[in-house]
Each structure stands twice: as structure tokens, then as C-alpha cells.
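S., here's the first fold you wanted:
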Amino acid sequence: MSAVTPRTYKAKRRDSAWDKVKRKGSKHYKSGKIEPIDLFRSGDLLWGKCITDIIKYAFRNKVPFAREKVLEDMDKIIHYAEIAKAIVKEEIDKQLMSKRSERTVVAMPCVKCAEREQQDQIDKLMKGAKDGSKPDSKS
């Protein structure tokens, strides 16, 4: 498995679950510059909209086959569930990236700190040589 860098993460996100779900949306929402779904998403309102619309379309069809558009409504329920799933996947990806970057930062030694530590050890050895004492065996 290859390492995830900010560059590969952005490339991966271009074809994320969100993008795939968004492509499935109705064409009549895509006529303007800003799609309504993007507005909901940018305002952190999309999750609530998805859950509300799932309930709305399910409730419309509480009596099976009472409506002519029952299949369309079921497709809409699936679509909103896929959007909700994409939101969850995106959040999981963000958390994973955050954890990976934390591990990377912790795992990478600071070059200046390492150089300073090395210089301190040299200084101790030099001081011990001047004093005639033995250097610490702990170092």
C-alpha cells in the first residue's frame, strides 16, 4: 500500500464517493453556477437534508403502491442514502488523513534537534577530555 500524501489525497478525492454520487443527481439542478446540493454541503446542512428527504420519500409511500411514482421515490431514497454514505466516507477519510499526518510528524525527527543533541554529546566528550574524566557511559 502506497503512502498517502496531500497530493495523492487530492487526486484520490477528485473521484471520491461524493463526486460519484453528485454525478447521479438530477440534471435540472445543474443548470446554474452553484448546485443546491453544494450550498447545503458548504453550510454543513447536507446530512440533515439527506435524512429529511429519505423520511419524506419513505413517508409518501407508507401505503405500498398507492402512488404512481413509487419507484421514482424509492430511487430518490437510495440516492439520498448514497449521499449520506459519501458524507460519512469523506469524514472517515479526513480523520484517517489527520491521524496519518500526526503519525508522520511525530515519526520524523527534527533535524535541528538531532544536530543540537549530537553537538551536546560532542561538547560533553570534549569537556570530559579537558577535565580528564571519563565520559558518561549512558550517552
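And the second, which I think is the more interesting of the pair:
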Amino acid sequence: MFILALKSSSFDCSFIAKMANSLPWTAPEGCYEHHRAVLERFVNSLPAAWRQDPTVGEVFDSRKDAETRLQLFSLVQGFDVVCRGGGSGTQLGQEIRCIHHSQVARNDRGLEDRVTHDREGNITSQRRRQGTNVRQTGCTWRVRIACVLINKKDEAQGREWRLTKASLTHQGHELLENPLATYPAQ
């Protein structure tokens, strides 16, 4: 209630926001007890700012740092991400999406939809497992990182990894209490 009263007044809340960023992160109630200490130690070992929403213009030392930052954010929020291409021969980049993106599952190997068997029960299809978990919901959460020139007028200054686009809205799925339970039992 104290924070709500401060927000409704003319008091500058930036101090409270800074304090919240510096507090250690604690795992939510739904997190398994035997994972709690390790998870909290890991999350708190990384910069507290990485637990906040990604913002366009953020700069990273490397692509790996950008991926780690976004994976940490998704872990704390209760979802998972996948990394996809997104660059070209002249422009290095990557798109990072919510694991529930798209409407259909990828099928890069061209497998059949179902496992087929012959009369003796031997598998005759390329697909070997019937029970695959497909959880695509068309979620639109995505972030794009790119290796861009620091100064477009002076290429000698080099390049940096920068967050260039962000769509931070989830669709079709709930965020999870237990950050390690990406696929809860149904």
C-alpha cells in the first residue's frame, strides 16, 4: 500500500524502482524447493538490470551476452525462448522468440505427421516417436538483436551488438510460476 500511495502522489518513484532492481531475486512460490537455492544464486549472479523488460537500444558486448540476458529475463518471467537466424551475409543478427511462437511446429526433416507400422509392428515411417509435445500458440513475444555500426558516419569506430526491435506481448499461454517447468504436465 505504501508504494501505491507514493505512485499516486507527486513523489518521484525512480528511487523505489532503483531499490527494486538492487534487491536479490527470490524464486516464486511454484518453484520446486530443491531447485530454489541454485536458481536464486544463478539469477542473482547476473546483473539485476537483466531481470527488467528488454528495451530497444540496449547494447551488449557480444551476441552471447544478449542471448544470456534474454534467457535470464524469460526465466525470471516464467517462459522460455528460442534463438533463430535473422541476419544476412552483410548484417549479423538474430531473432529471439517465445518458445510458443508460430502456429505449427517446425518439421525441418520432413517427417510424417504420424508413426506408421507394418503388420509385425515394426515402424515403417521416418518418424519414430508418436508422443511429441507441440505447444505453439502463436505468441508474438520476440526480440531482435543486430551487430550494427556504432557510428554510421565513421565505420572505424566498429560495431556493437544492440537490441533493435522488441514485441513484448505474450499471446495464447500463461507465464509459469515455476521457471523450470516450461512444459507442465497436461
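Why I say that: The chain has one domain: 25-106+113-167. The first strand starts at residue 59 and ends at 60.

Talk tomorrow,
H.
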